[in-house]
Automatic annotation (TrEMBL):
InterPro entries: LRR_5 (IPR026906), LRR_dom_sf (IPR032675), Surface_bspA-like (IPR053139). It comes from the Bacteria. This is Uncharacterized protein. Coiled coil: none annotated. It comes from Bacteroides cellulosilyticus DSM 14838. Gene3D superfamilies: 3.40.50.12480, Ribonuclease Inhibitor.
Length: 356
């Protein structure tokens, strides 16, 4: 009711007809706009058994595991129970989000959950969820199960009228043919699906909104200009299968501070790959690299260290470290070879051996 936004304490014991879980869910939903400063703080619900034909109440209950709520003692006193007290049974006859169920079970050991549907994939961003469900939900129940997610589908963002409202697109569990991510003009985080073997050329070229890119588990080629000029990109998550970083995929990503280690499978770092990544402090390159092309780390003005694990100096293009004063760490016993190698010799005074 209208008072739900003002409720601070919730205590119902052994009054199952009141449906305390439903009441609690309604209060949490009413206070969603309050964020982590929600008025409701202390909760105790004991002796309930409730049955549902949708997982909505369960989804709301999952908020109680976020650490911003506490419990009440049997006497109604705060400060004696660190987490909300939920002691009863909930039966759900529908599909449900496995992430929420895991969170509830890990937090509330006196809460019994009986689930008769299938686990579904949770998509946090409501605009991304609307589009993904419209593409993958074959039985129209509002959920995407693992079985539905495994069926190859076309996920073309230019076909979605609210693409510009999506902030997080997590496709990691989807067999998606991805198209037109450039339409995601307000995207903050993008995690590619497992079907892709390469990023698209100019995938997020000059997108000034994106902050995190995860390339997916099966990408082997990071294409040209994947994120060139993405001035707010802070983090890139690679996988352990990448073979080549083509020319300038991350050029002028001036906010980039974190990138996964470049794996041993990678044999080439293309020209201008990280040119102008002026906030990047360190990078690790695996044992498989045979070529680092021209200007690959040029203008990385904050770079302090570059670790390269291969004992055989890769071919190094011109100006690879121009306006970049980082120390270069190579495997023990390979220092002399690096210091004598073509173009590496120009940086001999800052090449050091390192025990990997």
């Amino acid at each position: 009711g209208q008072c739900a936004v003002n409720i601070t304490d919730f205590l119902i014991e052994n009054c199952p007809l009141l449906k305390p879980v439903q009441l609690l869910s309604d209060i949490i939903e009413a206070q969603q706009s309050q964020g982590t400063n929600h008025v409701l703080k202390h909760i105790r619900a004991v002796g309930f058994e409730e049955e549902y034909y949708s997982a909505d109440a369960l989804n709301m209950l999952a908020n109680l595991a976020d650490g911003t709520y506490e419990g009440l003692s049997a006497e109604g006193l705060a400060g004696e129970e660190a987490i909300p007290v939920l002691d009863g049974k909930v039966i759900v006859h529908s599909n449900y989000y496995q992430d929420f169920v895991n969170s509830l079970r890990n937090t509330f050991d006196r809460l019994e959950l009986i689930l008769e549907g299938e686990p579904a994939i949770y998509i946090a961003d409501k605009y991304a969820r609307t589009f993904i469900v419209s593409v993958f939900d074959t039985d129209n129940d509002g959920y995407v199960t693992a079985e539905e997610a495994a069926i190859e589908r076309q996920l073309y963002w230019d076909r979605y009228s609210d693409a510009n409202k999506v902030q997080i697109a997590d496709l990691r569990e989807l067999n998606a043919i991805e198209g037109s991510p450039s339409q995601l003009t307000n995207i903050k985080e993008y995690y590619m699906g497992y079907r892709n073997t390469e990023t698209g050329n100019q995938m997020f070229y000059l997108n000034t909104s994106i902050e995190i890119l995860g390339i997916g588990t099966n990408v082997v080629k990071v294409s040209q200009r994947t994120c060139r000029g993405c001035t707010n990109l802070k983090k890139v998550i690679l996988n352990d299968k990448v073979e080549i970083l083509y020319g300038d995929p991350f050029r002028d990503c001036v906010a980039l501070t974190e990138i996964s280690d470049i794996p041993d499978t990678c044999y080439e770092i293309g020209g201008d790959c990280f040119n102008g990544c002026s906030s990047l402090k360190s990078i690790v390159i695996g044992r498989g690299v045979t070529q680092i092309s021209s200007s690959a780390f040029r203008n990385c003005t904050s770079m302090e260290s570059l670790f390269i694990k291969t004992a055989i100096p890769p071919m190094l293009g011109n100006d690879a470290f121009t306006n970049n004063h980082c120390k270069i760490y190579v495997s023990i016993g390979s220092g002399a070879a690096y210091k004598a190698a073509t173009n590496w010799s120009a940086y001999a005074d800052r090449i050091y051996e390192y025990d990997f």
